[in-house]
Amino acid sequence: MSDRKTVILFDGVCNLCSNSVQFVLKRDHTNSFQFGSLQGDYGQTMLKKYNLPANEFNSFMLIEDDRLYTKSSGALRMLKKLGSGWQLLYGFIIVPKFIRDAVYDFIAKNRYKWFGKKEACWLPKPEWKERFLE
Hints:
This protein has helices at about 15-25, 40-50, 70-80, 95-115, and strands spanning about 5-10, 35, 60-65, 65-70. The chain is of the alpha+beta class. It has one domain (about 5-130). A hairpin with a 2-residue loop joins strand 3 (about 60-65) and strand 4. The model has no long low-confidence stretch (mean pLDDT about 90).
């Protein structure tokens, strides 16, 4: 089995996104995930690699074994890998993708209004620093 980490890319100025990353960091007891902001160098490199716009940060992205998962598919795969009961939520994968992604897009569209936005990218605690790809 590969010891490569699964990468989560997120909107670094979004409060909801930053809080979601902190949620994962606190529960990822096997250190399975690495993180990067979509605005950072690594995130921008990955956006280019996967032929995605470099200035649109409307989707959570999960990269696992060089495969990209976005929106609800990425979030559900993250929960599956997180374990500790969270993988049960992966059952929502049976909901058609267009429905899951419509809900995801609605939340993404309103995330700044509902949860706020930072002026600069969120910075992790020192003990989490090595988990970030910047």
